[in-house]
Amino acid sequence: MKEIGECIWKVEGEKSGPVFIVSGGVHGNEKTGAHSIRLIKKNIESGILRVKNGTFYFLLGNLRAIDLDERYTDSRVDLNRCFTSNLTDAQVKSYEGSRAQEIMNVLRIEDNPADSVVGIDIHSTNTPSQPFLVSQKIPFELHATVMPYLKTAEALLCDPNLIFEGELLTLDEYYARRGLGLCYETGHADDCSRVEIIYNEIVDLGTALGVFESDEKQTPYASNILPPVYTLRESITLTDEGFEYAPGIGEGNFVPFLKGDILGYHGTRPVVASCDGVFVFPKLKKHWKVGKSLGYLTQIL
Ligand SMILES: [Zn+2]
Predict the structure, then answer these.
(1) What is the mean pLDDT of the chain?
(2) What is the Å distance from ligand 1's center to 79 Cα?
(3) How far is the CA of 125 from the centre of ligand 1 (A)?
């Protein structure tokens, strides 16, 4: 095991094989990811978890924000929007901008052959939520190869039309440049009860990929029981008029609505749902910024 960047580790197997990457703590207050990474490190160091084939990378994301137990540092720059060459001046000057650069410089995703990478970026939500997965692509291959091992996820959210940010800039999207990239939302940020479960799922997936050789027993899975898939339809963007959610909306993730429902108001202008679906990623008011999203409407696929 080599530390190839600050808190970025690489383990090579004996034979060639896929590239498997797991990250956590890209948002510093989301503890499940960071704890899972520490558990992986501990078990690799003690020999409980061994890399057999291919290359395994694991890393902690926003190191300064993890120390602060905050989503990001005082820069208020989101590390998970910095995995692009198109950074704003504020991003370039921030710790987060340079940390994203360091991660990309050492992982060098583009140097891998197409379809050779599986990357999982572990997150948690700031409002109560069931665990779920996010992928930019419509994920038929994800369903077959990855999803059966990530059994805690109760839904898969995909964003083929890039409604989320309008461009590719998250860490899982960076992984996806050479294969599959997934953001794994593991529940509420303050809830650390799933660390062992998530760790075991990562071990199962890595073992199935042929990367890990583990003493721990792989749990059986049912490939026919896969969670529902939702696609992002539209974003609600904060304007100068301010915003007020309709009762029940914005307090949690996956809140269902019907076509024609009023979801909230820009000043006095109502936002009317254009389809049946669920409301996802409601931002906490303290993270609201004019011109940025407050949350998203999705539709079941
Ligand atoms: Zn996050």
Answers:
(1) 92
(2) 9
(3) 6
Residue 275: inside a domain, yes or no?
A: yes
Distance CA 233, CA 264 (A): 16
* CA of residue 72 to ligand 1 center, whole Å: 10
Q: Look at residue 140 and tell me whether its pLDDT is greater than 70.
A: no
CA 146–ligand 1 middle distance (angstroms): 20
Q: Please, what's the largest Cα pairwise distance for the chain?
A: 63
**Looking at the 3D structure of the chain, how many domains does it have?**
2
Instruction: Say how many Å lie between the CA of residue 241 and the centre of ligand 1.
Output: 27
CA of residue 236 to ligand 1 center, whole Å: 19
Is the CA virtual torsion 183, 188, 192, 193 positive or negative?
negative
The domain that holds 79 is classified in CATH as 3.40.630.10
| Range 186-193 average pLDDT | 91
Q: Are residues 174 and 74 in the same domain?
A: yes
Name the pLDDT band for 70 (thresholds 50, 70, 90): very high
Task: Determine the pLDDT at residue 46.
Answer: 95
Taking ligand 1, which is a single-atom ion, which protein residues have CB atoms under 5 Å away?
27, 30, 123
Structural domain boundaries, residue 277: 232-300
DSSP symbols for 247-260: TTTTSSSSEEE-TT
Distance 12 CA to ligand 1 centre (A): 28
Q: Tell me, yes or no, whether 113 and 202 share the same domain.
A: yes
- What integer pLDDT is reported at residue 218 of this predicted model? 62
Strand partners, 278: 256, 298
